[in-house]
Amino acid sequence: MISVILEYTDNLxxxxxxxxxxxxxxxxxxxxxxxxxxLVRIGAxxxxxxxxxxxxxxxxxxxxxxPAAELDAFTTQLFDDxxxxxxxxxxxxxxxxxxxxxxxxxxxxxxxxxxxxxSRPASAESF
Length: 127
Hints:
- The protein has 127 residues and is an alpha/beta fold.
- It has one domain (2-111): Macrophage Migration Inhibitory Factor, CATH 3.30.429.10.
- The protein has a 4-stranded mixed sheet, with helices on one face.
- β1, α1 (18-31) and β2 (40-47) form a beta-alpha-beta unit.
- It has helices at residues 18-31, 76-89, 91-94, and strands at 2-9, 40-47, 57-67, 98-108.
- The protein contains 3 helices and 4 strands; from the N terminus they run βαββααβ.
- Helix content is 25%, strand content 30%.
């Protein structure tokens, strides 16, 4: 599974439109035609408790986790595209806000990866 987790300070507010950014990231990764059967998971969490030296700043960090076996599919160009997509999403906000962005790639080796998939769709009876 390829996972992208956004962690952002909640002072970005609704104008950051994080749900739209999640959709853009999902569409970009789907368009990359990664290895068939590899799942892509994208999520975000707002930090409500944080300290920033200058309270006018906001921040967003994107952590991309890729299993070592899928690293070949996640090329340098794809990483650069994801980073550019995130930066472009905030282009209008840069005019009005101070925002620090970071994007990192974490390669998960076998020793650091536990993954299990259940292929049947969930149903109301299964809960």
